[in-house]
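Could you help me review a protein record that somebody else here produced? This is what I was given.
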Amino acid sequence: MRREQRIFHRHRVFTIFAFVAILPGAGTGSAAERVLIADGKISIELADGWAETDLNPGKVLAGFATQDKKNSLFLTGFQSGGSLLELMDQTITNFGQTFEITSEEKAKTGQVNGPGDKKWPAVFKSLEADVKNGNGTFPMKFHLLVFDTGSQLYTFQASSLKPVREARERQIFEMIRSLVAKP
């Protein structure tokens, strides 16, 4: 990828994330339903074409995937504390033990909506990795969000097989933007 393309791509991702942080209630109307997860403490507007999945049973609080299984979302809770940046670094380290990370963007701070006017601090990062499965290697893109509700720390992970369709990535960002978390 040429330097100009990387700068444009980074600018586009930053702009999308800025919308995630600044316009949390905005959407395109493509969300099918609001689902409650984590004992009702987290809700998300699930986009059309996404459904609950059992790809990681017992390891996640909730998981969703597209019908073709090329895209997925998982919500997990952290057992340990630390700053959000430290937790993001810990998450990336865990990824590096399983996948070969090929590119990693700089972490960005933002917020997740809470009840009323409450906002929870969050850190967002995108990365690309080669995932080995059996005899094959699959290039993937991941969007990671770590946030703190004051009583619980969560990681929200979205993944897509590459090449990522722009419409699918837009859905992922809309679902991230739709997150509402209670303490």
Notes: Confidence is low (pLDDT under 50) at residues 5-31. The domain at 3-181 is CATH 3.40.1000.10 (Protein Transport Mog1p; Chain A). DSSP finds three helices and eleven strands in the chain.
